Amino acid sequence: MQTPEQIKVESKTWKTIYPPYIDSTLTTAQGRRLGKTNCVPYPQLMEISQCLSSLGLRHVIDQHAGFPRDIFKQGRIKVRLYAEDKKPYNPQVQCKHTLLQSIAKLIKSIPNRKVEVPPYINQMEIEKQNKPAQKKQTSNKKKHKNG
User: Which stretches of sequence are listed as region Disordered (predicted)?
Assistant: First the structure.
């Protein structure tokens, strides 16, 4: 049995997956890696972990790691895709892109999936509603043509 420190050192070469990679509510600029039709709204770490287990892939959950593009989005999963001889553990998953597609497809197939909106999203919506609308500044000065 490996200690958490040994697993952490070993997992440095593994692929990293953040939930925003497959979040259909985000744009590609915000971190989504797949097309919206292939993604799911608000994926959770535990859902991704269940999918990785069903694919037979070894993984480690790091709940406190922040997503680099948005520090409010916490959590990531490190996945071991390849063995020491560079062959994939699961022949259906050849690369990270197909892994993300497989995870999103499996999450969509979860019966009675509850879509939980993260608390930071609710707080941002409240702040948007309470913020007064800014008026567009217009200039009353007339433009003069020179010459």
Answer: 124-147
